[in-house]
Amino acid sequence: MTQDQLSAKARWVWSETLRMHRLAPETRVASSLSCVEIFTALYYGGLLEHKGEDPRWEGRDRLIVSKGHGSISLFPILADRGYFDKSELEKVCQAGSFLGGIPDTIIPGYETINGSLGHGIGVACGMAIGLKLKSSSNHIFVVAGDGEFCEGSMWEGVMFAAHHRLDNLTVIIDNNKLCMLDRCEKIMTVEPFERRFEAFGWQAERVDGHDMSLLHQALTQLKGRGRTGRPSVLIADTVKGNGVPELEQDSLCHIRTLTHAEIDRATGGDK
Length: 271
Description:
alpha/beta
């Protein structure tokens, strides 16, 4: 896709995420809106080797969604890429649906259980080592929230990846600067990310996580850098609740449910 096409696809994913929130108000919409461009770049930008018709294809790259609750925006992408029928999007969080508010491996395309935060990098390290032992050229991506880095398990994974020279691993931090109850800087600061990761031996880059062109370019370069012996991290600066003023201005937006009127004002009639 061209950059304009990628941006248009991201807008569609954003709109679909809000539409699903209308159907299932229990979904974590603010967290899901900040990572729309990240998921769009991975699945439509030629970055992630995958087959929707064969989710467990041996030749696939792996995507570990560490911030599982904040990935409802991945549902329309998976449906659009052929992992399951688009009609399933109408059943989110309904009885009998595999599309729940906390995604897990029952959903085609999800590699791991994602209910408990702080485990994405550790799980990815195990996969990365496994692929290296098989001499596989496939890559592991992790999408994690910045608030997760208050968990010690994340930093254990960071140290482990550097020690084992896991250069087939890229972590993308959805750096929306808000966790459940307030701004991250008020609860436990995790910045400066670059200096922290570089101190552990990682290659670190930072980009505007809503600028599709810059985001896609940075991810392409990180995946294609070859065997450097260093895992990589991309800090994607984002806005929690991106595009919805009622969410952007609320430090408690993580647990906020939008009214139908608020959704209508945000989408402006998007279909």
